[in-house]
Fold this sequence. Notes:
The chain has a seven-stranded mixed sheet, sandwiched between helices. It has helices at 31-44, 66-72, 85-94, 96-101, 134-147, 163-175; strands at residues 53-56, 77-82, 104-108, 120-126, 148-159, 180-187, 190-196. The chain contains six helices and seven strands. By secondary structure, it is α/β, with parallel strands linked by helices. 35% of the residues are buried. The protein has one domain: Vaccinia Virus protein VP39 (Rossmann fold), CATH 3.40.50.150.
Amino acid sequence: MAEAKSENPAMHHGMKALAPPQGIAMEMGSVQYRALRQVIFETGQPFVTPRCRIVDLRCGKGEFVEPFIERNEDLCRFIMLDPSSNNIQSCMQRFHMRMHLGFVQPAALDLNKDFPDLSSRLTICMGGLGPLPIERRVEVLGEVRRHLEKGGAFIMAEALKNEDDCASWLGSLREAGFDSIERIWTSGNICAWMARKKI
Length: 199
């Protein structure tokens, strides 16, 4: 059984009385938004290696993967997936030149029905698993781990209903077989985790 790392107790402060879940959508430019975006980037960047692939399973309009693209665009390939055709269209417009150069590839994907058959060094998913049935969540997490390169990482964020919901997500990550799990960010009802695949 995979063993999760001990979490930083400070990250649990205030978790007993979470705000009602509202998804992970945050006002762009807000303090909370900028903080989460920065933590995702700082946590994921050390796993990036030359010629690796970075996959965003719920890219939205590309906000959370954009810092990785800006830092590593000539070194890596970026797969941006989302169930919304409007979001994919926005990404195509936002990253038009990088698509032309072959660094970025947006595509439609509904995680409730499919999973990309692509290996990755780093996979991120911001709010993409919460809407799925619990059984499907575990299936998708298992696919994430299976497609990660050894030594790679998965970073996810979800809105929580309560502290028990947090424990449920940790249990799902363990069940998927991740070797170490760390809660990297908490604010209000939103938490983010990093899970690694052992070398």
